[in-house]
Write a structure and sequence with these properties.
about 550 residues, alpha/beta, Rossmann fold, Luciferase, domain 3, GMP Synthetase, Chain A, domain 3, 3 domains, seven-stranded mixed β-sheet, 28 strands, about 30% helix, globular, binds adenosine-5'-diphosphate
């Protein structure tokens, strides 16, 4: 029996609540789904091209088998187990099987370079690593440099015999909810990747927030297509949220190309999906080219980088898809809410769309604030930019075995590295990443706003803006565009001019075949800056 009274360090007697002592554990999610939504489908395509249709009962059972197999292989609480996989059923089982026994699920981004993968496996000291058959070559190249890994198990027949040899656990062990559950490294566009460790408690709480109405309203009536990779910020908690809600879940394997996504939406009657803007830009272009449709899809969650307003307008006007645009980071997963408030619901369409183009608003559980360079709070006036800080029970308080004195303020807020404005209702607008903002004549230009305006110009498929040195102004914007029909630079600039202050206008427009992306689908500005380091401003542009 719990002690009802407890003396605090200060000597004050605290009266404890008399609730049951039940820990918030990830295993409770899969148990719940297996028990109540056992017949709800989980459809997955492996990299072998085979579509596996199972259900939550089967996922729950196979996860228990995997848990038992891992214990049998000597994996103990707190040890890290890596995955290099696509969105498929075995990866989903790993999400639950690894965390269920108290080991730590370390999802590894296969798009990173060999050296980065080796670095994070060694830093995490992974003991076993599960690898998709598509990445066996990566494993072969790096295995000798990963001394902590005792076993590499390929997500195919090898994995099947690994779990077949074990009897499913009759029940999951009772863990402390503060036990580490997942480890995810940020892509490290600057410096080495930093490991974010989420506890069971934190995952359950953030999953609840994702399921909440103002989160992504994940509920049992949905069929969810996971278009965000499971190695990117735990698939934005969607693999956990689908189980908590008992929703149908579709895992498209390696096929995240527009054609496949459209086919999945239509064959599996998908109602909700989540992914970065580039995925949806590609899908919309394909739909337009092929005169296609996606009638079942009602909502998508978009984040990870800024979604252009033109994308949201097209999705809603032409395909009836509401875009819930949110901001988030590996350090907290979803960090803002995309749903319209009662007041915004009653605004005219243009005002609503202006809200939607912002990066969501403060969601209960992740407190947000802005500070200036001296650390003073910046007013929530929708205009004054400041550095965005975050704090909350599922926000990273520090990084895995890494001293990063700059990552948090003295009073414990996470420095997000984003420059933003906020309004009185908590709506945030990301001006830029602090390192991407263009400093022209002492004033700031938002590369994000310029990109979004350029993408709104017919013919422009994707746009990226970087700041390059300029003799007179310090830095000026260069606009890089991918077009699908010839477009005059002046046409693009006059389009952009309607959306931004005149002095923001890029000095030059260059056309490129492709815009480089990072492993998590963001524009790789570092690479662009290197490519255009020797750019000479044209006469009109200087
Ligand atoms: P990485 O740094 O590894 O790419 P994250 O996915 O954690 O990984 O990136 C988080 C960053 O992505 C945020 O700090 C922000 O700069 C950017 N971001 C996320 N969502 C949005 C959004 N809706 N609008 C603009 N930027 C966003």
């Amino acid at each position: 029996m719990l002690l009802a009274k407890h003396t605090l360090e200060s000597g004050v007697l605290m009266l404890r609540g008399l609730n049951m002592d039940r820990q918030l554990l990830i295993s409770s999610l899969i148990d719940y789904a297996g028990r109540n939504h056992g017949a709800t489908s989980v459809v997955a395509k492996g990299s072998d091209g085979v579509v596996v249709t199972s259900d939550w009962a089967e996922v729950a059972q196979r996860a228990r088998r995997l848990g038992a197999a891992l214990l049998g292989a000597g994996v103990s609480e707190g040890q890290r187990v890596g995955t290099i996989g696509w969105n498929d059923h075995r990866h989903l089982e790993a999400y639950y099987g690894i965390t269920g026994i108290g080991a730590v699920l370390h999802t590894i981004n296969p798009r990173l370079h060999d050296e980065q993968i080796t670095y994070i496996i060694n830093h995490a000291a992974d003991t076993i690593v599960f690898v998709d058959r598509d990445f066996v070559e990566v494993k072969d190249r790096i295995a000798a440099d990963c001394p902590t890994v005792t076993q590499w198990i390929v997500f195919d027949a090898e994995y099947e015999s690994f779990i077949d040899a074990a009897e499913p656990l009759s029940e999951w062990p009772l863990l402390d909810e503060w036990s580490a559950a997942t480890l995810c490294y940020t892509s490290g566009t600057t410096g080495n990747p930093k490991g974010v460790v989420q506890s069971h408690r934190s995952i359950v709480l953030q999953t609840w927030a994702t399921c909440s109405g103002d989160g992504h309203n994940v509920n049992s009536s949905e069929a969810i297509l996971l278009a965000v990779p499971m190695f990117h910020v735990n698939g934005w908690a969607m693999p956990f949220a689908s189980a908590m809600a008992g929703a149908k879940l579709v895992l498209p394997g390696p096929e995240l190309d527009p054609e496949s996504l459209i086919e999945w939406i239509n064959t599996e009657d998908i109602t909700l999906s989540a992914g970065v803007p580039t995925i949806w830009l590609g899908m919309v272009q394909h739909l337009q080219k092929t005169d296609g449709d996606i009638p079942s899809l009602r909502r998508i969650a978009v984040g990870g980088s800024a979604a252009p307003r033109s994308l949201m307008d097209t999705l809603e006007d032409e395909y009836g898809v509401f875009v819930s645009h949110v901001w988030g980071m590996t350090e907290m997963t979803q960090g803002s809410a995309g749903r319209f408030t009662h007041r915004v619901e009653r605004m005219d369409r243009d005002q609503q769309r202006a809200r939607q183009a912002m990066a969501g608003r403060e969601l209960y559980g992740v407190e947000l604030r802005l500070i200036d360079e001296e650390g003073n709070e910046v007013p929530r006036d929708g205009e004054t930019p400041g550095e965005l800080l975050a704090r909350g029970p599922w926000v990273a308080g520090s990084y895995f075995e890494l001293e990063t004195p700059q990552s948090h303020t003295e009073d414990g807020w996470l420095r997000t590295g984003d420059v933003a404005t906020m309004d009185s209702e908590g709506y945030i607008t990301i001006v830029d990443r602090a390192k991407d903002v263009i400093k022209s004549g002492g004033e700031w230009i938002s590369s994000i706003d310029l990109e979004n305006a350029a993408v709104g110009c017919p013919g422009v498929v994707e746009a990226a803006v970087i700041g390059l040195t300029h003799d007179r102004w310090g830095e000026r914007p260069l606009l890089c565009c991918v077009v699908d029909v010839p477009v005059e630079p002046t046409t693009i600039l006059s389009h952009v001019e309607q959306e931004v202050p005149k002095w923001w206008l890029p000095n030059d427009v260059v056309f490129v075949d492709e815009i480089p992306h990072t492993g998590t689908g963001k524009i790789d500005k570092k690479q662009l800056r290197t490519s255009f380091a020797d750019h000479v401003w044209s006469e009109g542009g200087s």
